[in-house]
Amino acid sequence: MTDQAEKRKHPRVEIILKVDYDTPRDFIADYTHNASDGGLFVNTDKPFSVGDRLMFDISFPGLLSPFRCKAEVIWRRTKEEATEENPGGIGVAFLFDNAEQAERVNKIINSLSGNLEASAKPTQETKPFRVLLAEDNHMVREMFRFAVHRFHRSKLRSQRELAILEAEDGKGAWKHVMDGNLDLAIVDYYMPVMDGGQLVRKIREYSDTRALPVIMVSVGGDDARRQAYAAGADLYLDKPVLLGQLFESLQKLLNLG
Amino acid sequence: MLSKKVLLVDDSEIVLTMASAALESGGYEVRSIERWEDLDTMIMHFIPDLILMDVNMPEVFGDHALMFFKEERGLSRVPILLYSDIDEKELRQRAEACGADGYISKSWGIDRMLEVVNGMLHSA
What we know:
Order of helices and strands of chain A: EEHEEEEHEHEHEHEHEH
Distance between the termini of chain A: 32 Å
Oligomer: heterodimer
Number of strands of chain B: 5
Number of helices of chain A: 7
Strand order of the largest sheet of chain A: 1-2-4-5-6-3
Largest sheet of chain B: 5 strands, parallel
Shape of chain A: elongated
Number of helices of chain B: 5
Helix content of chain B: 40-55%
């Protein structure tokens, strides 16, 4: 937690809170239960007032890059009012900058919730986890596909089947995107016809695909990384890709359900 | 007696030139590829007895490509050694992790590389 005091006549305390949860379940319980009950609970003795604005960095490591989001204090329970069951703190509500931001977070929340519910049902039919692999180098694409399938077979405990759809350029990739039902796109930045940046922009513009998680990969270093994030990629990995990083992201996504 | 065949996979022209010369002087028939996309054309007419695989290849690391060679390209019986200038401890770990048949550090020099290759191919 970082405090940054402002030198105003009536000083306001602007605080950036980094809230870590041990498991997705903890976050879901907090987000869904407390949100409907009046906001995300933050255990704190700081003298916040209702109406104070806070900044949150929301991230799901390996799934989405952090983004900053405003939140407003909507209730407060002082130390004096606190009990063992209901500790002191504040309730905050997220104020997303735009619908897209809210949609992306809500999609992950819903996936997490769905997975937690599904995990209670031992045998449930699930549709395959559909990954788009857009890469113009056929051998690299083949190696990637092999590695991901091998990892899925040997290491993942996920009950979900994995389906990999392939494209050798941005146009082919867009066709798969438009066909729908993708759960993840792994996109090379430099591709013919339509590059990865253009592809991701289109994905973000189209309402049905706006929330699709996109991992961008490239040999382009910092330049490509900047452009990938500017286009709307959720995660950027340098090539050669450390497969461990990619698998970690995949594992999380697959286990989300 | 036919020469044993060695395939070098490395994106460095200098390494390829030096290693090829050393291996040829040791009596081996040597071919090389600098890019992954040349693999299929190569193995259509040249099935190696041993592969020396660089780790820091473009696009895909050599150790990550190794099982693809073995399982997807019918090279499961061909010994593959990682051949790299990365730190030796890391190289050993990566070789063990990826299922390589061994490793050769480029820092060992050409003579020792040839010794290891000789040991592999003459004991096979």
